[in-house]
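WARN  no MSA supplied for this record, continuing single-sequence
INFO  ligand: NAI
INFO  echoing inputs
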Amino acid sequence: MTKAAVLGSGSWGTAFAKVLAEAGTDVTMWARRAEVADAIANTHENPFYLPGTQLPDSLAATSDHVAALDGADIVVLAVPSQSLRANLEGWSDSIGKNATLLSLAKGIESGSLLRMSQVITQVTGADPSRIAVLSGPNLAREIAARQPAATVIACSDSARAIDVQKSCATGYFRPYTNSDVIGCEIGGACKNVIALACGMASGIGLGENTIASIITRGLAEMIRLGVALGAKPATLAGLAGVGDLVATCSSPLSRNRSFGHVLGEGGSMERAQEAAHGQVAEGVKSCTSVRSLADSYDVEMPLTDSVHRVCHEGMSVQEAVGKLLGRQTKPE
Ligand SMILES: NC(=O)C1=CN([C@@H]2O[C@H](COP(=O)(O)OP(=O)(O)OC[C@H]3O[C@@H](n4cnc5c(N)ncnc54)[C@H](O)[C@@H]3O)[C@@H](O)[C@H]2O)C=CC1
Ligand SMILES: O=C(CO)COP(=O)(O)O
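INFO  complex generated
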């Protein structure tokens, strides 16, 4: 039986641990706070991040990372992007030498501008062939309710991708393998930024034409950056690109879209943060790192730049809209 450790017990870590357990994998979750681990282990619910969802009895939980990692074939990294490095530094020595490291995080590290798989290689020294990424239209609450969805598992080693695929395939969760790690990571990080833009647009009362235009031009930005970094355009036309963009930009369940909506309504960053109830909206930090990454490759990303200006330079959403539409006209 495949054994997995899920490190991070937020909404996606918990929902994905449930998927793994329901696919027949032996799963132990790690939570930073003992009260979260205790609640999962004793009440089979995570009242802090996924209230109301019954978790499988077989799902174990602990706040001791050494115990969670003991014998794990698959190590699922389910903490937010900006805290992955610091966490991994503490976990690295306890990770099995042949374990597959599966990243769930959708962001680009601030400062270093590294993708999550690159952070993992840097901290653990693991060969890139051991690192996999899972990304797709996977809003945690819908997956927890067993609503059908598909996803992508990207790994340069196809045998490992297939092992991970088998560990999480269920009657409602359909993972596809892909060898394009860069494409999946860029899709996941960029769609959060574009979802913030869609939320901002809906917050100031704009309708579906605007949202569709942002999604489509956001996709163009994502493809430009991805291709510059070595991604395949087909990956970004798939579940980890278009698929996740559509889900995140359209759903009120998205934390990024909701965060942008509050800003569009005229709320402050602090108000938007409060409304997120302690959950992460990755695009708020990644808009800056994606923008810097794009700059360093001479890639134009005007929507991403506008999201950065609204979030971090005090530009109003109205001003950002005016600036975007005032740009020189050009061919599609
Ligand atoms: N929630 C969702 O629907 C989905 C989320 N993701 C991605 O998964 C990643 C994790 O997101 P969620 O589980 O949704 O986040 P969350 O905000 O629900 O929970 C974050 C988890 O990380 C922990 N955490 C926060 N800062 C930490 C730190 N410094 N050290 C250790 N643990 C820390 C929290 O205690 C919590 O357990 C993010 O990159 C997100 O973009 C991907 C797909 C779906
Ligand atoms: O990544 C997600 C869906 O695929 C979740 O998006 P949010 O982080 O915006 O909720």
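The pocket of NAI (ligand 1) is lined by residues 8-13, 32, 49, 78-81, 83, 87, 104-107, 138-140, 279-280, 282 (CB under 6 Å).
INFO  checksum written, moving to next record
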